[in-house]
Amino acid sequence: MRLRYLHALALLALLLSLGASACRTRPTEGSSTPAAPTLQTKLDTVFSSPSGLYTLRYNHSWQVQQIVTEAGVLDLFTLPNATISVETERVPPGTKLDALIEQTLAQYRSVNIQGLERAGSINVGGGHGELVHAVTYVNAQGVTVASAPAPGSRPRNLSQAFYLAGTQRFTFSVAWPQGDGTDYMKLFRSILQTFTLAGTT
Predict the structure, then answer these.
(1) Which CATH class is domain 2-26+43-197?
(2) Residues 6+ apart with CB under 8 A from 27
(3) Exposed, middle or buried, 160 (CB in 10 Å: 0-12/13-18/19+)?
């Protein structure tokens, strides 16, 4: 239990740092830096995870990389104003999805993550996943933190879908600034519908 607790917090810290990096690449107001490229949402390319565990579809224009840290291995997709990631972890036989989510929520509350709520079920490759929503903040230094550190901090949405396949837990995450009117949840749902476990086709 303790190891899983540390793993979840390490993953959260990594997601926050990735969010901060994405925000720092955006031009500030009044800057002459060109605007970010237009988001392309057609899922026209198959991604095969280097882990060999799954495939899904994404847009060819998104930057793709695999990040290996103490928190685990993430397959990261960087969009013009958002990030989407997939992280996997082995869990003990008999692990229940509901219990896993409640443990994760307790861990997030322990570090003062804001706006936490369970948001119902989501289709993950035809299987049953569960959604969790949260809010993080970007301060004046471009650092993403759990709670608003000062007036003027910019809120950033974080949504995660949790899915169990036997003893493999998948955590899908999408993060984007609240001021961006793009329907990232619609895109997130579409991507998850294309998810396919290795050896099931």
Answers:
(1) alpha beta
(2) 33, 34, 35, 36
(3) buried
User: Cα 47 to the chain's mean position, in Å?
Assistant: 16
To 10 degrees, what angle do helices 2-24 and 97-110 make?
60
Distance CA 9, CA 73 (A): 14
Strands (E), 45-189: 45-48, 54-58, 63-69, 72-79, 82-90, 114-124, 127-138, 144-145, 154-165, 168-177
Per-residue pLDDT of the chain (201 residues; tens, 9 = 90+): 444 444 555 556 556 655 544 544 444 344 444 555 789 999 999 999 998 999 999 999 999 999 886 666 789 999 999 999 999 988 899 999 999 999 989 988 888 888 999 999 999 999 999 999 999 887 776 666 767 666 777 888 999 999 999 999 999 999 999 889 999 999 999 999 999 999 876
Report the alpha-carbon distance of residue 62 to residue 83 in Å, rounded: 10
Q: If we measure between CA atoms, which residue out of 169, 177, 101 comes closest to residue 138?
A: 177
- The number of CA neighbours under 13 Å toward the Cβ of 156 is 31
Q: Which residue has the tokens 């974080």?
A: 158
Backbone phi, then psi, for 83, in 5-degree steps?
-130, 145
Label residues 132-148 b or e (16+ Cβ within 10 Å = b): bebbbbbbeeebbbbeb
